[in-house]
Structure formats: C-alpha cells, structure tokens
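Following up on my earlier thread - several people asked me to post the actual chain instead of describing it. Fair enough. Here it is, all 299 residues.
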Amino acid sequence: MQKHLNNKGKVLSAILVVAVVILLVELVISNKNDEAASTLHKNSLETLSVSFEPMEGFEESPLRHSIILKERADKEITRKQAVAKQNEIDQQEKAVYLTFDDGPSAVTDQLLDILDDFQMKATFFMLGPNIKEHSKSVVRMKKEGFGLGLHGITHEAGKIYSSPSAPVDEMSEDRDILEKVTGVRSNLIRLPYGSIPYLTEDMRYLLDKSDFNVWDWNVDSRDWELKDRRYVQHTKQEINRYMQAGVTPVVLLHDKPHTIEYLPELLSYIKNQGYQTKVLTNEQPPVTFQCEGRCNSIS
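Reply from S.P.:
Thanks for posting it. Predicted structure:
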C-alpha cells in the first residue's frame, strides 16, 4: 500500500514538472510572437511614412499637370466673375488705368510732375535694379499715392522664362527690393513682354502660390514702337473703343523720354472726356491674358 502511494506521488510530481515546462515554453513562444508583431507593426509604420513622400517624377507627371489645370480653371472662373463686378464699378466712375513699365528712370520725376499737373494717377511696374538706382523717385510715388508694381529683375526673356520657377524667383526678389525701399509689399506684377506666350501653366501656378497677381493690359499704346505723337492718337482711339464697349481700359505705357514728351496730349484727352484715372491695388482681380493653347516654353 505504501509503495503504491509513493508511486502515485512520483507520477503527480512528474505531471507537475511537465506542466511547468509547458507553461514556460508557452511564455517564451508568446514573447517571441509579441516581438515579431511589434517589429511587423514598426516596419509597417515605416513603410507608411515613406509613402507620404512625393513620388519620384510626380513633378513632371500628367497627374500633376491635370491638377494644375483644374486649379487654374477654377481660379479663372472666380477671376472673371470678380473682373466683371469691378468693371461695373469702374464704368460708373468712367475709370481708366494708366500703367507704366520698365522704370523707374532718370526721367521718372518729370513723368510724375506731368501726372501731378493733371491731377492724375498711374501704376508703375518697376524693375528691381532700377528701384535701387532711383529709390528717391519710388519713395515719391508712394508718398503721392501712385500704384507700385513689379516687373522683375532682368527683363530678358531668356532668363525670366528659363524655368518654371524663374518668374516667381525674379518677382520675389523684386518685391523684396520694393518693400525695403518703401515698406510696401506689392503683389502686382507685369511680366516683360506680357504673359503670352512664354508664361506657361506651371509658371502661372507657382506665381499663384506666391500670391502674385499677373496684370496685362487691354490697350497697348504702342509707344514702344511708334515713339512719337502717333502713339497718342492710337491710344485715344483704343480708349474710346473700349469705353463704348463697356470695358474699362488698362493702358500699357512705358517710363521712357519719348512717351513723356507727348504724354500731356494724352492726359488732356482723358481729362476732357471726363475720365478718372485710378491705381491698381493688391485686392483687385487682374486683367490678364489667358493661354488658350498659346503658352509654350521658351526653350
């Protein structure tokens, strides 16, 4: 009987030992599984984080191009609506916008004197290096309430349109120069030679992202070509034509001696017609050319 009890105790002890061993093995396996799961989870997160990086080649992809076109199409609808609303206000005031490119220059003060004599205002689209050279004239513009805009740095088509980021780089530098001289931060820009045909959709997209408003014109005075009294007669006819059509004239002129020489004749016409000259502002929707298949890289 005693022998039978001893054997039974040994069996129970063996069973207990086996149970303990099994439990320890299960714990070891469980820990390894947890480590594996943790590693898998970590790797998954790392994989996910990488997926948020821009895909290689996305900048040049058709998908990105389609996104840009869609954004610009939506913005163009909004711009046209705002231009129409502004035009109604301007027509009631018989407004004309005079704009001068390429300055300031050695004759800018003479130009400002003539505008002051006629009690008229204008907006100046200026080159960064010229702003530095004739900073006193620019400070005067600010004090007397003229519009201050940007025209870039180089005025060389081969440079300002050389890459998608080139226009925004030049205009940003120009803006910083103007702000340093006057304290005015302007978003008004005019591209050299106008925004057609070299300002591509990618360039326009980047300019939009930097809050620049691309201003072109609807009346080209042709002072850059005619360089004498003929530009005045041409401009008068165009202003009259647009006014009769119910469209506010935005007139392209240049800060040049030959333009200034005949400017009083043009201003006399504007005054006699009862038109009011106004300045462009950051808040106004811009009058600008649209690509419509005409924009191509200069290269």
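The two ends are 108 Å apart (CA to CA). That should answer part of your original question.
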